[in-house]
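User: Show me sequence and structure for the first protein, then do the same for the second.

Assistant: Starting with the first protein.
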Amino acid sequence: MLVVRPAGPADLDHLLELAILSGPGFTSLPEDADQLAERLELGRDSFSGKLAPEECWYTLMLEESDTGDVDGVGSVKAAVGLKRPFFSFRLVNNTQSSPFLGVKLDHQTLVLVNECTGWTEVGSLFLKADRRKGGAGRLLSQSRYMLIGAQPDLFADNVLAELRGVFTPDGACPFWDHVAHKFFPMEFDDADRMTGSTDKQFILDLSPRHPIYVELLPEPARAVIGKVHPQGVPAMALLESEGFRANGLVDIFDAGPTVSCGRDNIRTVRDARRLTARIAEEVEAELPALISTDSVAAFRAVRQKAVVEGETVILNRETADALKVRSGDTVRVKT
């Protein structure tokens, strides 16, 4: 059975393997053991309630219960931009006209902004290639919203997700090569690493002070603004199915899009019900349901068959054991 569970320091080797597999541009999964170890310690303290809510960063692992294999990772960062700025480019539409000439022109510009301070971020969604079928990605993605729904007061009213921008098969990034690199004279990987490991002052120091006119950029750069890396297309579809929409912000290095949704309007947050668990030896149901515990501290999630009867949900013993719940416990269910 696939189970989504909290990550902790013992998962370092698993997380490092996933970071290496994720490839370039996946800022939240750096190929740096020290950074990843620090993140896992932060995750442990987040789940245990040792940190202030806005400081928490919850990392989740997708695990095969029979083998213990870890095949995917996802995360929820309770608040971004509080200790370090959360920079983006905003695509701004500008209209200029000359009544004398009878000319009206529409221009797009990229403007550096820091608009999402305090928002919750869902991210780090990555699965091994052989797990990207059969609903594993949907389980891992939706588990993040079940976590938010378990204790909504720990998270912000607005939730965002950043998607990786376009890279060529040989690893080149058109937007970086033609635009961002002009302002940041370093390798993409170095800028990417510094974004996650510093206070981002270098971005404020070196970023363009004036709007960048999109029409003046080379075609390879224009073509990828707001576009998603091919590996990120399924993740984008999952986000859109939950109600997330592009909000006009793009990443300053690879121009990948940012999408957002009100916390309480996320479909899984809104539709999941709190029910009382009852355990039976056998459960007959046509379709599986998304089921999670009802607390952040003991969070676990699965997709298994269950029968809803009024305010009760009937689970089989294997499902209950995977969730570590007993009859009478409250769980959250989305059918």
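Switching to the second protein now.
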Amino acid sequence: MPTPYETFATLHVPGDPLIIYNCWDPGSAVAIARAGAKAIATGSYGVAESLGFCDGEKAPLPHVLDNARRIMSVVDLPVSIDFEGGYAVDPAGVAANLGKLAATGAVGCNFEDSVIGGEGVHPLDVQVARIAAARCGAGEAFYINARCDLYLRTPPERHDASLLDTVVDRAQAYLAAGGSGIFVPGLRDIATIAAIVRRTDAKLNVIPAPGAPTRPLADAGVARVSYGHGPWAATMHWLEDQARGAIDWR
């Protein structure tokens, strides 16, 4: 019988991607599980907003860990947590916090290289040390979805060959440091996605454009497709519309 960690890892198949429709609390996790999801994962934006905070590690770590436990108590599926930058900058703090997250029963997390509350991304050597610490803290079986935010933080007109080379270098270093897969939000160009897969052999995670089909991403070799804060935003928009219609009944 495979462990939940093994089950989650084997769901990441290049060309037949794991679909993650991100949840934010136990109720949304149950709804997504009922839809036929093979795994559950949170999006940090929706989690923070649902708890009354803003994204960017503004939700207190105990709240995030408690929310993770509550989600796992109501779904019988592997659960991954969007853990932003690990709620620490220094490797020792990252290791300690990843240990706390792993202790909840989560099978994996997103771990980003953006400087939380600051500008840009961590220097490569700093982020490599942070990923190695995350691996040490979480254990060997834990799925670390190492996020590279350069496409997200670079204007589209500068999404050129030089940026691709930099992202490939970072992805290779992240994998060598202990990353299980690579997450590149902000990238939607199919040819570039395929190039990253080809040059890194990574289990690549991307977020599609709104309404975009999954097939081209699968054909490019993507192993995971997630939806970030989109499900939260769509749900809140629907709820606001419904409330407005009820309130403005006259």
